[in-house]
Specification:
CATH topology of the largest domain: FAD/NAD(P)-binding domain
Protein name: NAD(P)(+) transhydrogenase (Si-specific)
CATH architecture of the largest domain: 3-Layer(bba) Sandwich
Largest sheet: 7 strands, mixed
Organism: Microlunatus soli
GO molecular function: dihydrolipoyl dehydrogenase (NADH) activity; flavin adenine dinucleotide binding; NAD(P)+ transhydrogenase (Si-specific) activity
Shape: globular
CATH superfamily of the largest domain: FAD/NAD(P)-binding domain
Number of domains: 3
Keywords: Cytoplasm, FAD, Flavoprotein, NAD, NADP, Nucleotide-binding, Oxidoreductase
CATH class of the largest domain: Alpha Beta
Subcellular location: Cytoplasm
Number of strands: 22
Helix content: 25-40%
Strand content: 15-25%
Mean pLDDT: 92
Structural class: alpha/beta
Length: about 475
């Protein structure tokens, strides 16, 4: 280690990737600092992204009584008139607590948290604007990890006023729950917020230039989600591009390239994210971002400059808090030659729509394209006692199993606690388990986890039927 530098590792950004890389390096006995604006401890994840949107979702589910309407009727609500104040109270509490948890973790691991904005002056040196442009500190480090995350992409032909036309960071600043709303972009963030506002009673129109929303997910699961969202009065304009948005005193008019016009109180733009690298002065470090501000890394998360690494949303897909955390751990381990392993192929994807969607492993389409023989087992929540108890009649779990080896190749879940349930399948796949484990094991009753048993029995019955018929054909021959 070159001890002429002040730190062994400097991390730019305190989001999930930055936190985990800093703590991993500290556990290895390294001198570590994390640099981020004082108001952004925890990064976009805690301040404007993952934590706020998921907290908002939970507040909406509770206050609307939506999960219990199957039991108590469509008019059931915990609170008749839900205000933004009702929603933001819980939001600020959770953000405050999470920020303090992160500060405490860094302090406990002897990581210096430097409040300010960093930029490169050379490959090993960072200039940090502390509390304003007039105060500056220089930090040198042997290794540097860039974990600056992303900001919402803003198309040049759209005027964002922060009142009627907002990006996905500004949506939390709305003064009242709108009666009507246009959401542009059917990616993860767009669909999540669209479903949240639909649950609040807002008439939402979702516009997406691609022919399908969430195209990386299982089509059957997404069709189930669309059916449920339509039941919440949501409209879809897929395969449509926005030509322009006009905002006036009472609302907005969104004009589509096809000539259609949509009136709404508010428009939320969620058409992609931009890597937050513009102010880093990357050229001083010998780096260059792509046209979306993202950095290219190798399998060890190393950039083209050997001692500089990058993790999290700033390197692109899958751009999830969970994957960013693991990338941070791995980058720090690789930077200091600590043995590390990852299970990148089995990283779960969680989408916090209402209802939730989550999956791990392969989709049917991917396996068909790869010519892998498989069979599918389905379980529906309405068949489970727990599904009846919680009032979820629409949820489902799909298992995809290799026909010959009987290994589980994919698990796809839609409904209550989908993002929790998916980890059971993930663990079995990670251990190389087969569907027979689920058939033979005992699961608590009544639970949603039983969906695995039902789906496993479904797929094994199908496999048995094929084997039996094949055997009878051989005997006949």
């Amino acid at each position: 280690m070159d001890h002429e530098h002040e730190y062994d590792l400097a991390v730019i950004g305190s989001g999930p990737g930055g936190q985990r890389s800093a703590i991993m390096a500290a556990k290895l006995g390294k001198r570590v600092c994390v640099i981020d604006a004082r108001t952004m401890v925890g990064g976009v994840c805690v301040q404007t992204g993952t934590i706020p949107s998921k907290t908002l979702r939970e507040a909406v589910l509770y206050l609307t009584g939506m999960q219990l309407r199957e039991l108590y009727g469509a008019s059931y609500r915990v609170k008749e008139e839900i205000t933004v104040t009702d929603l933001l109270g819980r939001l600020q509490h959770v953000i405050g607590r999470e920020t303090e948890v992160i500060r405490a973790q860094l302090l406990r691991n002897h990581v210096d948290l430097i409040g300010g904005l960093a930029r490169f002056s050379d490959p090993h040196t960072l200039e940090v604007e502390v509390d304003g442009p007039d105060q500056q500190r220089t930090v040198t480090a042997d290794k540097i990890i860039i974990a600056t995350g992303t900001t919402p992409a803003r198309p040049g032909h759209i005027t964002f006023d922060g009142v009627r036309v907002l990006d996905s960071d500004q949506i939390l600043d709305v003064e009242r729950v709108p009666d009507t709303m246009v959401v542009v972009g059917a990616g993860v963030i767009g669909v999540e917020y669209a479903s949240i506002f639909a649950a609040l009673g807002t008439r939402v129109t979702l516009v997406e230039k691609r022919p399908a929303m969430l195209p990386f997910c299982d089509p059957e699961i997404i069709e189930s989600l669309k059916f449920h969202l339509r039941d919440q009065t949501m409209s879809f304009r897929l395969g449509e591009e926005v030509a322009g948005v006009e905002a006036g005193g009472n609302g907005t008019i969104t004009t589509l390239a096809s000539g259609k016009r949509i009136a709404a109180e508010v428009v939320m733009y969620s058409a992609g994210r931009q890597g937050n690298t513009e102010r880093l002065r990357l050229d001083s470090a010998g780096l260059k971002a792509d046209d979306r501000g993202r950095l290219v890394v190798d399998d060890h998360y190393r950039t083209e400059v050997e001692h500089i690494y990058a993790v999290g949303d700033v390197i692109g897909f899958p751009a999830l808090a969970a994957t960013s955390m693991d990338q941070g751990r791995l980058a720090a381990s690789h930077a200091f030659d600590e043995p590390a392993h990852d299970l990148a192929a089995l990283q779960p994807i969680g989408i916090y729509t209402i209802p939730e969607v989550s999956y791990c492993g392969k989709t049917e389409a991917e396996l068909t394209e790869e010519a892998v023989p498989f069979e599918v087992g389905i379980s529906r929540y309405r068949e489970l006692a727990r599904g009846q108890i919680i009032g979820d009649s629409y949820g489902m779990l799909k298992l995809i199993v290799h026909t010959d080896t009987r290994q589980i190749l994919g698990v796809h879940v839609f409904g209550t606690n989908a993002t929790e349930l998916v980890h059971i399948g993930q663990a079995i796949m990670g251990c190389g388990g087969t569907v027979d484990y689920l058939v033979d094991t005992v699961l608590n009753y009544p639970t949603l986890s039983e969906a695995y048993k039902v789906a496993a029995l479904d797929v094994t019955n199908k496999l048995r039927a094929v084997e039996r018929l094949t055997s009878s054909m051989l005997v006949a021959d």
